[in-house]
Amino acid sequence: MTEHNNHRITGTAAIKTLIDLAGPSVAAGAVARRRETVGLLERFQADQRSVDRLRELRARYGRGPVELVIPGRRVIVPLDPDDVAEVLAGAPTPFDPANREKHRALQQFQPHAVLITRGALRAPRRALNEQVLDTPVSVHHLSEPFTDVIATETAKFAAVALERGGFDAARFTTMWWRVVRQIVLGPSARNDDAVTDELWRLRRAGNWSFAVPQHRRRRARFLQRLRHYAADPEPESLLGALCAADASDAVDPIGQIPHWLFAFDAAGMATIRALALLTAHRGTLHRCEIDELNVPQVRPYLQAAVQESLRLWPTTPVLLRDTTTETTWHTGEDELRVDAGAMVLICVPAFHRDDTTMEFADRFEPDIWLDGRAESHPQLVPFSAGPAECPGRNLVLFSTSTALAHLLRQLEIKLVTPTLRPEEPLPLTLNQFGLEFTAAPAWLPLVSR
Q1: What is the spatial distance between Cα 256 and Cα 204, in angstroms, rounded to a whole number?
Q2: Is 55 exposed, middle or buried (0-12, 13-18, 19+ CB in 10 A)?
Q3: pLDDT in tens, 33-71
Q4: What DSSP assignment string belongs to 64-107?
Q5: What angle, 0 to 180 degrees and rounded to 10, lies between the N-to-C axes of helices 193-206 and 257-280?
Q6: What is the pairing mode between strands 436-441 and 411-417?
Q7: What pTM does this model have?
């Protein structure tokens, strides 16, 4: 049982604290974003509540963490950046990424994905993901065909944007999914909206976690569509690399694909928000690497802009872990001992936008990812961290930065909605669905725009 400690919060106070910390993420749709709700959350700057709550908890309890006693669940909330680092480093034991609520939500569309795998299969599934995604390297071995896909799709997108004089988030998202389907499944999937629409429906069900039954028939149809592509895999795709890998049926190679598609959706959010940041902070544009577009390469500043987009507006606002053994937490002079089976909840926006520990918290500062400052803040986790860090991190940064380079080379883009002013603190909540841009021919060098 949990040892008594004055860092425990019970009753309605515990529920209110949980709502402030996790409520915006749940309301927005943790697995599939709800367009109308995200707009409302932006209007009320809902993430301010989580930032304020973490600050209030830290002022009251010190280093922390605190325990929220909720009916049927005990929730540990780290308050200290070092505790965040320790939790994320301790995967899968004693802090299991296959958290109970997360497992139920993601089971709707990816029941065998490594993220929610427990036990002996976790290691071989992780190894397969790292092999196919080229986790350790900065430039994926299939970067040349991926670059060709991005070049083709951004060129078509730019031509339409010039005709219309601009574009919005919906048009960008359509282009992005065409890129993603080709990278993941191959060129023949370019126009297969049905496969990603089916995934979206399953993800929407996943938003409700335990509140809705499993959609087994729909999931079976979706997975069958993936197996159809796997029957004749296109070699210049992640699916082709997956089918060429040596993996047992128990690992379920095809079962890893849904998470890649899911993760690339978040990458699209980060890309369009990074585009908004760069075009609103026009003094940064001359640093964007837009030369040699046909040569796959690391683009440090553009990658830093994407990471900064993820810092400012995390696409995974809440990181969840379940304790697998009794854990002991230091709370100053006391200790908090918690049995196995408790939830650990890391409220990412509250740490990423904490102006009491980071003077750059509310401004666009890509250089923190280049000069080492980000490394000195273990609470900055745009791709999570530790053994469960996103295995596609480098591939995502390569794909997103390459797309940004192509767009900025072809178009002079200006952010219309919303207004982001470099001299003002950036909003805590940003509705990516509402982003709108103007587009003109990019006939001037970026340095003069």
Answers
A1: 19
A2: middle
A3: 999 999 999 999 999 999 999 999 999 998 889 999 999
A4: --EEEEETTEEEEE--SHHHHHHHHHTTTTTEESS-HHHHHHHT
A5: 90
A6: antiparallel
A7: 0.96
